[in-house]
Amino acid sequence: MADLSLPANPEAPDVADDGVWLTCIECGHDHAPFDEIIYTCTECGGLLEARYDSYPTFDQFEGRTSVWRYSAALPFEEGVTLPEGGTPLHRVPRLEEEVGVRNLRIKHEGMNPTGSFKDRGMTVGVRVAQELGVDRLACASTGNTSAALAAYGGRAGLETLVLLPAGKVAAGKIAQAALHGARILEVDGNFDACLDRVQDLADRGEAYLLNSLNPFRLEGQKTIGLEILEEFRDDEGRFPDRIVLPVGNAGNTAALYKCFRELVAGGDLAPGDVPKLTGVQAEGAAPMVEAIREGREETRRWEEVETIATAIRIGNPVNAPKALPGIRETGGTAVAVSDDEITDAQRSLAAEGVGVEPASAASVAGLRKLRESGEVDAGEDVVCLTTGHLLKDPDAAAAAGSDPQPVPNDTDAILRHLAGQSVGGGLLGKVRSLF
Ligand SMILES: *Cc1c(COP(=O)(O)O)cnc(C)c1O
Ligand SMILES: [Zn+2]
Q: Residue 248 annotated as binding?
């Protein structure tokens, strides 16, 4: 079983570099962080985690509105930045009232430079790549990782290679990867197959892997948790009870849990104040939900996965060994939602001015479901993470929204059209909002 405990007084092992090293969560072996390229434990194949000789505290965070504000929690002081992070923590009063919780906030990660939280991981990952002196970066992606890799790799002047599942990536994401200069390979297979291939390429020394298997990506993504805790506390004088997020490879779930563990170890977060990590998956791709329900340590690989939420269309979540304990230890849960529930949540968010892609809306759909079943209490302070921007998947947005109405090029005709539609349109709008 994975050991994710952090010592109260960490001591840097000999292999550490400036107080940073990598520890295997399965066998506990320590590894040098930047001597040679490793992604998993060379002793046992287990997942690695970055470790530090000191823990971050809130008073160390200052200045810049970017991931690098949190350098006290990161392996470096700065890196290639666009700048990422500093995303809004929206209030959504109507949705809050409808869902029925004490507080509902939306952490909109779609407001990052390339439109998803992947930028937070990439700014740190590319900095590490520079330290290692590699010249080609690669990832498998359902889309957003490739957009972030292409942008950050390009800015760093490095070659970028992305492997995408043919026909299963939203239009906006491919457009980004293409324009930011990545070499795009469309693989005849799903995301999990792409990850198998790119891991082979990385093992053969052909490229530096920047999927969330790379422990340094998760270090950057920890800053989502740090921002939520800081801002929520400034606004409300306490930390949120629960953070609800969509789960694909479970990198974000793992990153948030690491954020909390480090704050607890450093004494700035009481164990009882740790938000409950609550993961949401699509019904057609829910191996994490299955593992939580069945009380298993590992996920079973789903060979066939399908959902409108392409960013979480993943059957073999690589970070499950880090994320499952996070969900359990924080007292959270995991829930699956249908594509229709996702689309409804996407509309509800959009009605409050928050435009997100389908995977992101899964968080709100999941919260709704857990409120209805009573698993989430009406007295809770909840933050839902929306992971990617509406424009990432313009086809899904257009399908979920209303259709354009053709009118003649004539003002009187347009007025007649508006008068004729207003009753029907208003009624239709009301009917839709009931479902
Ligand atoms: C990557 C991604 C996810 C899944 O995140 P994991 O860390 O892999 O669980 C969810 N939503 C969007 C928009 C993403 O890009
Ligand atoms: Zn090991």
A: yes
Q: How many beta carbons lie within 10 A of that of residue 150, not counting itself?
A: 28
Structure tokens at 247: 């789960």
Q: Where are the domains of the chain?
A: 1-54, 89-115+217-396, 118-209
Ligand 2 geometric centre to CA of 96 (Å): 44
User: Ligand 2 centre from 57 Cα, in Å?
Assistant: 29
pLDDT in tens, 145-161: 999 999 999 999 999 99
Side chain identity at residue 115, one-letter code: G
One-letter amino acid at 340 equals: D
Topology of domain 89-115+217-396, CATH: Rossmann fold (3.40.50)
89-115+217-396 and 118-209 agree in CATH topology? yes
Answer yes or no: CATH 3.40.50.1100 is held by domain 118-209: yes
Quote the ligand 2 centre to 294 CA distance (angstroms): 26
8 A C-beta contact, residue 85 and residue 107: no
Which numbered atom of ligand 1 lies nearest the CA of 388? 13
pLDDT over 80 (residue 435): no
Average pLDDT (126-150) is: 97
Residues 32-56: tens digit of each pLDDT: 999 999 999 999 999 999 999 999 9
Full-model pTM = 0.95
SS3 content of the chain, % helix, strand, coil (to 5): 45, 15, 40
